């Protein structure tokens, strides 16, 4: 117990350094969900996968947990170069006492800012910059995260909805065709969704839908 308390006592520089690192680690863990959702490609991926399920009309198949798992691992795959850069430039030097906390934050924000800026529409970024009364920045480093993150988030949502619209079109055609056939046959009491579901699944399998969706998401970054 005394050894544990000595870590926070701050009686020597090593104890202070250990305390700061522990506090930083706890802070990162507490902010991890928000960072994952709003500062990476996770939002676009999970929204597109949800649109796939909605367009198929399979209700809870695939389950939400499966979609989140796929989106999570795809996010780690796509963001791996950025995460590695952050680790090499900020986390590892900080853990080795080679830079201060402020320097580590500056170095860590650089790669993630570069990723978000590349995927953010100029119109969305200008919206938040104008609202904040900011002048045109000379570089990405001059844009604060409080401005870049929401601009990146709404840009990702717009892209995801555009992809979702394209996914919906072929399945909507099947629904309309089935509904028209049932109406012409006088089978108005039979729900068209029940009849069209196997045809939509068949189409999705024949065109290798999961491959097409995944490849489109990967090429988008």
From TrEMBL:
NCBIfam families: fliP, PRK12797.1. Belongs to the FliP/MopC/SpaP family. InterPro entries: FliP, T3SS_IM_P. One of its GO terms (biological process) is bacterial-type flagellum organization. PROSITE patterns: FLIP_1, FLIP_2. Signal peptide: none annotated. It holds the Pfam family FliP. It comes from Terribacillus aidingensis. It is found in: Cell membrane; Bacterial flagellum basal body. Plays a role in the flagellum-specific transport system. GO terms for cellular component: bacterial-type flagellum basal body; plasma membrane. It is a multi-pass membrane protein. It comes from the Bacteria. This is Flagellar biosynthetic protein FliP. The chain crosses the membrane at residues 22-52, 64-83, 160-182, 194-213. Keywords: Bacterial flagellum, Bacterial flagellum biogenesis, Bacterial flagellum protein export, Cell membrane, Cell projection, Cilium, Flagellum, Membrane, Protein transport, Transmembrane, Transmembrane helix, Transport.
């Amino acid at each position: 117990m005394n050894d544990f308390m000595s870590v926070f006592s701050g009686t020597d520089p090593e104890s202070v350094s250990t305390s700061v690192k522990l506090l930083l680690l706890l802070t990162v863990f507490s902010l991890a969900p928000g960072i994952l959702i709003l500062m990476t490609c996770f939002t676009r991926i999970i929204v597109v996968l949800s649109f796939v399920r909605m367009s198929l009309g399979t209700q809870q198949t695939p389950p939400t947990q499966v979609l989140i798992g796929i989106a999570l691992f795809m996010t780690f795959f796509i963001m791996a170069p950025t995460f590695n850069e952050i680790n090499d430039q900020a986390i590892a030097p900080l853990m080795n006492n080679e830079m201060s906390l402020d320097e580590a934050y500056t170095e860590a924000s650089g790669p993630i800012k570069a990723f978000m800026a590349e995927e953010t529409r100029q119109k969305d970024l200008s919206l938040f910059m104008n609202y904040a009364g900011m002048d045109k920045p000379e570089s990405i480093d001059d844009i604060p995260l409080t401005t870049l993150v929401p601009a990146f988030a709404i840009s990702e949502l717009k892209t995801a909805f555009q992809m979702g619209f394209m996914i919906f079109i072929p399945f909507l055609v099947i629904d309309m065709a089935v509904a028209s056939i049932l109406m012409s046959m006088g089978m108005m009491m039979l729900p068209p969704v029940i009849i069209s579901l196997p045809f939509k699944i068949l189409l999705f399998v024949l065109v290798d839908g999961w491959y097409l969706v995944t490849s489109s998401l990967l090429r988008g970054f």
